[in-house]
Amino acid sequence: MTATTTTSPLPSPAHAAGVAPGLRLVGVSKSFGHQTVLTGLDLSAYPGRVYGLLGLNGAGKSTAFNISLGLLKPDAGRVEIQGDPFCRRSLGRVGASINGPALFPQLSARRNLLVHCRLTGTSPETIAPLLERVGLAGVGRKRAGSFSTGMKVRLSLAMALLNDPEVLILDEPQNGLDPQGIIELRDLVRDLADEGRTVVVSSHQLGEIARMSDDIGVLVTGRLVYEGPLADFADADDERAMEKAFLEAVTGGGRRTETEVRA
């Protein structure tokens, strides 16, 4: 099935098994003045799976992420975390790296993480294992301001993982990484999902989304025009097929509702 059809399948086998989405947006709309950014957005990402969110610049991805994190209030609709309505307590269940790394450049990598530990009430004992996991164990005492872009991305990811979140949102995490770093990030994202987390990733690198994602969502001017398993969107091993499916989706794809799938 390609995205040119007016239908798309259920998001994942987990849905059919009755598993609640780790992250769910229901009828979310948002406008800024006279500009409508999101219109009735329904999105479901599941535990143990990587959800790749695709869209052209201005499609509404950043706004959807900010609403998912409680940084913006929707004009309509709601956000759910593991079936629970989003509230202040939900903040500890979600980790994110969006809008570029937010670091204190004068502080070391370790002290950056320590500041976040104090703000979130997280044990400092998590710092050393996280630095190891994101490949920064050898530079933990160096100033973050001296880091390369890729190293800053790794440190931002470590911050997102400090509270051991159930849901992880990553906006363009590959930016600034060299080829080896991209491969390592891909493996880490897969490992995080395999541990049971819901991982949502946005990227303009279609090939990388194909290599790491289980499910795909395509956002076009604030509406989700495709949502479903990657295997039903395009051949993940054929980057040209991914490009073709994406272009077809943004120029006229459609989305099937759950009722239509079952009919």
What's the gist of this structure?
With 263 residues, the chain is an alpha/beta fold. The chain contains ten helices and ten strands.
SSE map:
Layout: H1 13-16, E1 23-32, E2 35-45, E3 50-55, H2 61-68, E4 76-81, E5 84-85, E6 94-97, H3 109-120, H4 127-133, H5 149-161, E7 167-171, H6 179-194, E8 198-202, H7 206-212, E9 215-220, E10 223-229, H8 230-233, H9 239-250, H10 258-262
Parallel strand pairs: 3-8, 3-9, 6-7, 7-8
Antiparallel strand pairs: 1-2, 1-4, 4-5, 9-10
Describe this protein's structure.
By secondary structure, this protein is of the alpha/beta class. The protein has two domains: 167 residues, Rossmann fold (3-Layer(aba) Sandwich), CATH 3.40.50.300; 64 residues. The chain is built from ten helices and ten strands. Strands 6-7-8-3-9-10 form a six-stranded mixed beta sheet, with helices on both faces. The protein has a four-stranded antiparallel beta sheet with strand order 2-1-4-5, covered by helices on one side. It is globular, with a radius of gyration of 18 Å. The two termini are 17 Å apart.
- Total helical elements: 10
Overall outline: globular
CATH class bucket of the largest domain: Alpha Beta
SSE pattern:
HEEEHEEEHHHEHEHEEHHH
Average pLDDT score: 86
Q: What structural class should be given to the helix and strand makeup?
A: alpha/beta
Span from first to last CA? Answer: 17 Å
Strand content: 15-25%
Uncertain runs are 1-13, 254-263
CATH architecture of the largest domain: 3-Layer(aba) Sandwich
Count of strand segments:
10
Fourth-level CATH superfamily of the largest domain: P-loop containing nucleotide triphosphate hydrolases
Number of domains: 2
Query: So what's the oligomer here?
Result: single chain
